[in-house]
Amino acid sequence: MALTVFQLNLLPYAHGAVNYLRLPSVEAAAEYRRSRVVANPVFGKTHYTGRIAVLHIDGNHSYENVSADIAAWASLVQPSGWIVIDDYLWPYGDGPKQAANEFLFNSQPKVECAFFMGGALFIKLKQDPVHDDLRLTV
Ligand SMILES: C[S@@+](CC[C@H](N)C(=O)[O-])C[C@H]1O[C@@H](n2cnc3c(N)ncnc32)[C@H](O)[C@@H]1O
Fold first, then answer.
1. Which residues does residue 39 pair with via DSSP β-bridges, in sequence order?
2. If you take atom 8 of ligand 1, which residue's CA is the nearest one?
3. Is there a single domain that holds both residue 34 and residue 4?
């Protein structure tokens, strides 16, 4: 039922540009890294660049699971992209907060800014200086 509602909600916007992997998140990341083409019978086939603009982490909220999701997906986020850690402040535990803080601490050179809003932590990555240099010289 939930899958059908999800499909009905997204179908009007899909047009081959939106798709989903129905897999545990870490397996989905491995599949996404393996193939840039995501296909299913409802949304058809979508070709991805492999550079994620907005990554929203909102699966299992244990520290171990949020950390595993960040480890699996965050390196695919493009320079200037966003990482959103849902339920950073959460009444039932601090898994998302612990994992997000650890990521922020370890990724400081790559992070432009981070702020908390609506229960989630928003992290914006810096622009890629190499790409910026290339863009300036082209
Ligand atoms: C907090 S809910 C959020 C769902 C969705 N983002 C939303 O707002 O409707 C977390 C969902 O992730 C699923 N989930 C938990 N661990 C997961 C994992 N490792 N891989 C994929 N889904 C997972 C749960 O079954 C649950 O449906």
1. 45
2. 58
3. yes
